[in-house]
Amino acid sequence: MKKTTIKIMTLCSILCFLGVTLAPLHTALPQQTQTDEQPIRHLASDVLFDQKISILMRLAGFRSLSTCIIKNDTIIWSKGYGFYDVPEQKQTTIDTIYVLASITKTIVGTALMQLYEQDLFDLDDDVNDYLPFELRNPNFPDDPITIRMLLSHTSSLNTNTQMQYYWFNFSGDPPFPFFPEPYLREFLLPGGRYYDQSVWSTKYRPGEQAMYANVGFDLISYLVEIISGEPFLQYCDIHIFTPLEMHNTSFNLSRLAIELVAIPYQRFAGRYYTINELDVLFGNYTPPEKYWRGRFYPAGGLYSTVSDLSHFLIMHMNQGMYKDTRILEEETVALMHEIQPGNSLGYGLAWMHTKISPRLTASGHAGDLYGVDTWMLYEPDNDLGVIYLANGNPGYSLLLLRGSIIWRYILYSLFTKQGNLDGETAQCPLSFDLVLRKPLMMSVNQCW
Questions:
Q1: Which fold has domain 62-393?
Q2: Helix 214-228 to helix 104-116 angle, to the nearest 10 degrees?
Q3: pLDDT digit string (tens) for 282-318?
Q4: What pTM, to 2 d.p., does this model score?
Q5: How do the domains of the chain map onto residue ranges?
Q6: Is 133 exposed, middle or buried (0-12, 13-18, 19+ CB in 10 A)?
């Protein structure tokens, strides 16, 4: 009884804190003459904001969080929370390196759309015009799969996890002479060594329904290689990372400062494990086939920092321009960001739209892997962008309950910090608050 009472009191305190602090955190300070009280007020607001983020991190199961807010083409606020390497007590900064998970898809899509601008293909071309093997859904063998379908997750491919990831070890980069070929052929074609029929929809034809498919972006990376004539990793280095000054970004761990890489943590049975420790726990650890790059790395295996990734988001926010360098044409950016007709996922071309609150929708991409949670979004009406990269999560038993709630609180808090977002009230909209408060209470309850 005593423990229950303490738990209830703790829950009430946390929920009251989260609710009450929304008002001062989301209110723009009035334009007035500088006084001695203003720095104190700013400091108090920042302290409350930091406390709220720390609580939300605990609820989400994050060990660290690196984040920034962008206005137009400038980072106007940034901060690192927690330790990205807990045993070594390494403090997080915006230069901490994280696995981006599915944010990677926006880079892969950008690479392909650069080639589109050169009239090297059409979005509605059959992929078989370019691939060295015949790609068809065996359940609908007469229906072509187009490049547009791959970019918008409407190819009738499913996300299949059985063979997708060989998890995380600091032993180095894997020797994958067989990726993308012949691995993709063996994975996607009936009779292949790694073929799993569940990778193909039996219900929907190509182009008929949006279904998230990681392997689709592995195919896109392969198309980049074939159409450009350059290895995919080299293409990204030359045409995206170098002109965007993304010096701490790579698909290859060996090129990065390993001491700055955030270790993925997963919560299980009341404690946090590294991914390798979980593999050992469940008897799945089979070195040396576990590396810091999965076989399907173009779908989610890019390493980067908040600082580097901000350059990429600024480019998309500014219609393809970064500083004086054009990466994409303005029309191409608009095409990528536009939701494809009938797309139930709210997906454009390697670009997704996300409803954060009843009155706040932003676009960009999210990422989620074991031990990693990432977001890169912008709100065009206010030229406002937000990035957060986190390591650690509560485990997939609670992901749908907790994950879908907490990230909205974090993103909303960042977007509305100190009144950055026009049209949002100083307090969380009532409908938004009511929608989230009850599930959040359930989530907090399972943290203790």
A1: Beta-lactamase (3.40.710)
A2: 40
A3: 544 433 334 444 556 889 889 999 999 999 999 999 9
A4: 0.83
A5: 62-393
A6: middle
